[in-house]
Amino acid sequence: QVQLVESGGGLVQPGGPLRFSCVASGTIRNIDAMRWYPHVPGKQRELVARITSGGTTNLADSVKGRFTISRENTKSTVYLKLNNLKPENSAVYYCNAGVGNTKVGLDWNLRTSWGQGTQVTVSS
Length: 124
Fold this sequence. Notes:
The chain is mainly beta.
């Protein structure tokens, strides 16, 4: 069984920075892409950052230039650094990863795992 555990959320003033981490644990042979989704109650989760196992990153236009995603494969950890935070960035941030332990030919059988979320509140 795989678990993802986020940490690093909290209260921050507008314009301030914050850094999250998400650690995967359990029986893991391969972690594919890792992602971050902010979620505001009543709205759909929005993918804002993704990083592949090889380190290729994608960021939503709304966060480009302010958010940075990175990962340490040896630690099964993905990070999200948020700069110049705005009140509209307040949300519960969830990490998500495709995890595989078996293969069919060259392809890993990936199962998507979600963390429990970490709250970010941007307010003065």
